[in-house]
């Protein structure tokens, strides 16, 4: 890849994609990856799995500065005994969280990754179809450009996004969030992934969104 010419490392955020979307770190030449356990992996929040390529590892081991203690990947690697020597202590880990992640990976292994990826793609396509039947518009127009785990929806002019999210939570006990960055006040984000990646969940969320839109008439905003 072109960035290799300049010694640049490629870092990828896979927080809302790992497990639910095909991601091939080695084949794609990715040097560093981080993710979370509470998204498509369906685990509890609290730990952040990371992975590094050989290029990244050489870069880390040849550094000439010392990062803050809690962000020192060399110290963390020593705790995980990545160097094949005596395990070093860095912090007290949470065995329940690690065990929970292991159980989540076991469940995905039973399904197999290709089938899990396909499940996310099919459920999300179904969810988008249901939303459009209710008159919602998706922020990303082309289906091939959309992420199969998070859907970004725009509301008709005149609707307050904060009120929409609040009503949805109060009436239907469903929590979604508003947009970030340039989409603040312009969209809402809906995550259907992991164990929630089913047509039953997609139907329930779509109906709740439609009811919220209908209930929050412009005159009541």
TrEMBL record:
Classification via Gene3D superfamilies: Aspartate Aminotransferase, domain 1, Type I PLP-dependent aspartate aminotransferase-like (Major domain)
SUPFAM superfamilies tied to this protein: PLP-dependent transferases (SSF53383)
Keyword Electron transport included in the entry's annotation: no
Required cofactor names: pyridoxal 5'-phosphate
InterPro entries to which the protein is assigned, alphabetical: Aminotrans_V_dom, Aminotrans_V_PyrdxlP_BS, PyrdxlP-dep_Trfase, PyrdxlP-dep_Trfase_major, PyrdxlP-dep_Trfase_small
Lipoprotein in keyword set: no
GO BP terms: glycine biosynthetic process, by transamination of glyoxylate
Domain Aminotransferase class V: 5-201
Keywords: Pyridoxal phosphate
Molecular functions (GO terms): alanine-glyoxylate transaminase activity; L-serine-pyruvate transaminase activity
GO cellular component: peroxisome
Superkingdom in the source lineage: Eukaryota
PROSITE patterns named among the record's database cross-references: AA_TRANSFER_CLASS_5
PANTHER family from the UniProt entry: ALANINE--GLYOXYLATE AMINOTRANSFERASE, AMINOTRANSFERASE CLASS V
Similarity comment: family membership: Belongs to the class-V pyridoxal-phosphate-dependent aminotransferase family.
Protein name: Aminotransferase class V domain-containing protein
Source organism of the structure: Euphydryas editha (Edith's checkerspot)
Taxonomic lineage of the native organism: Eukaryota, Metazoa, Ecdysozoa, Arthropoda, Hexapoda
């Amino acid at each position: 890849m072109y960035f290799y010419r300049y010694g640049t490392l490629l870092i990828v955020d896979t927080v809302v994609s790992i497990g639910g979307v095909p991601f091939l770190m080695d084949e794609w030449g990715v040097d560093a990856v981080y993710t979370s356990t509470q998204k498509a992996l369906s685990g509890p929040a609290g730990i952040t799995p990371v992975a590094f390529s050989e290029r990244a590892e050489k870069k880390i081991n040849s550094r000439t500065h010392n990062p803050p203690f809690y962000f020192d990947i060399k110290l963390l690697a020593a705790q995980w005994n990545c160097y094949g020597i005596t395990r070093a202590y860095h912090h007290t880990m949470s065995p329940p969280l690690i065990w929970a992640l292991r159980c989540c990976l076991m469940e995905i292994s039973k399904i197999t990754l290709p089938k899990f990826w396909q499940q996310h793609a099919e459920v999300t396509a179904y969810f988008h179809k249901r939303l459009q039947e209710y008159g919602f518009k998706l922020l990303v127009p082309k289906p091939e450009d959309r992420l199969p785990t998070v859907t970004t929806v725009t509301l008709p002019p005149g609707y307050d996004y904060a009120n929409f999210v609040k009503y949805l939570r109060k009436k239907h006990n469903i929590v979604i969030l508003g947009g970030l960055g340039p989409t603040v006040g312009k969209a809402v984000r809906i995550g259907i992934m992991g164990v929630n990646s089913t047509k039953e969940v997609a139907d329930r969320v779509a109906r709740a969104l439609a009811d919220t839109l209908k209930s929050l008439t412009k005159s009541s905003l």
